[in-house]
Write a structure and sequence with these properties.
Blueprint (H helix, E strand, L loop, with lengths): L2 E4 L6 E5 L4 H17 L6 H30 L5 H26 L1
Antiparallel strand pairs: 1-2
Helix pairs in contact: 2-3
Length: 106
């Protein structure tokens, strides 16, 4: 089964994605788990916090462009802006929590 992205405003097909086999999905999950176990998990909390902070800052810079693009290309509702904002806010909160906890462990 393929997956399609359809603009809900116009009903036009935007893109079709091929189905993923169980084997391909399993490989992707194994690779993600391996990356966590061999890399991310062993980084100091302060370093992970910096990465999340940089990601949140980049997301904030791109927020308006993503919002405008999503409305025009995908027919996203206006509340999409607030959904993305909440996601960025969550990343910042996690970064702040990580920073506070890394200081307590030092």
């Amino acid at each position: 089964m393929t997956y399609q992205t359809i603009n809900p405003t116009t009903g036009k097909l935007i893109k079709t994605y091929p189905d993923i086999s169980n084997q391909s999905l399993e490989i992707a999950l194994v690779n993600a788990h391996k990356a966590f176990e061999t890399n991310w998990r062993h980084r100091p909390i302060a370093e992970r916090s910096q990465i999340i902070s940089a990601t949140a800052a980049e997301s904030q810079q791109r927020l308006k462009a993503a919002w405008s693009s999503s409305i025009s290309l995908h027919g996203r509702p206006l509340n999409f802006h607030s959904e993305v904002s909440r996601t960025v806010d969550l990343a910042v909160s996690c970064q702040n929590w990580g920073s506070a906890n890394s200081l307590m462990r030092s």
